[in-house]
């Protein structure tokens, strides 16, 4: 390719008179570039050779880089295979990426005694076991974090066992693990990030450990087979749409530590028939129980102070019990709740709720 281009460019330059025709001087083939051009055609030929040389370098460069990359891969492949073999029994530093590697998982040191999981390299594992600690260079590190997106869309993963030092599961960590059937959480877990288990289609049961304080938005969204989940008493915050489209979810207890049910928490939970709201809950946000078709009755706690817009929109409610107080409400709380007949209230609040929701419902006074 380069010789052909050189001939064409030289011919054009001589045809246009930019470079003189060769003088006819016999020049040895061993004569260096630039000098040979000068002897053959003068200084114009020398300049032309310099330009052609530079052009040739630019043309050849991508091909040189490609072959160099291939040679590097050929050189490092045996090293990577050796590292992976050693990492089956001991923690090894990957000479290519710089990660620590052990039993199919990469680790990064984040402080003096902790490591984070940023990636994995075993593409065949169906069961993931996160150890409590790993030891490298004579020092022991706690495994405290599972990184963002690390195992997302790992379709073959069926079981997860988390070590007791794992404190944070970052966003999307196990999103789309469509074969995941079982998760065993460690005792040290404090935070689950948004979308962490979204789309885990066959996961049926979850028991979250005491000590967990926060769960992010849509963390269990679209877990279509999820029937039951145990929320710990330590839990403080729930994320928006956390159970969105969990169509098999049947029963949930909200612990007393949770003060607010966030936006769309149970949206489209068509099988949800039993919800226990503990004392301590103060707010139910907008569309929290949107389209909960199987929810027939609900008792609101005495601590509740506010119901958000469309909180029970298109739900299957037949009756609902309000506390002995005036709860502030948003708009269209019971829109399209076609089965709702009875609202249980106290004698002191009956007039308030009738004025708020209208006279289409029966207001039963309870003491």
Can you give a write-up of this model?
- With 367 residues, this protein is an alpha/beta fold.
- The protein has helices at 2-15, 35-41, 43-86, 350-357, and strands at 92-93, 100-102, 105-111, 114-120, 127-129, 133-136, 139-146, 159-161, 168-169, 182-184, 191-192, 205-207, 214-215, 228-230, 251-254, 260-261, 274-277, 283-284, 297-299, 306-307, 319-321, 328-329, 342-345, 362-365.
- The strands form 6 sheets. Strands 1, 2, 3, 4, 6, 7, 9, 11 and 13 form a 9-stranded mixed beta sheet that branches. It has a 4-stranded parallel beta sheet with strand order 16-18-20-22, with no helix packed on it.
- The radius of gyration is 35 Å and the shape is elongated.
Percent of sequence in beta strands: 15-25%
With helices defined by DSSP (H or I, 4 residues minimum), what is the helix count? 4
Q: What does the radius of gyration come to?
A: 35 Å
Work out the oligomeric state of the chains in this entry: single chain
What's the overall geometry? Answer: elongated
Distance between the termini: 95 Å
Number of beta-strand segments: 24
What percent of residues adopt helix (DSSP H or I)? 10-25%
User: Secondary-structure element sequence?
Assistant: HHHEEEEEEEEEEEEEEEEEEEEEEEHE
The chain-level mean pLDDT equals 92
Instruction: State the major sheet.
Output: 9 strands, mixed
Q: What structural category arises from helix and sheet content?
A: alpha/beta
Low-confidence stretches: none
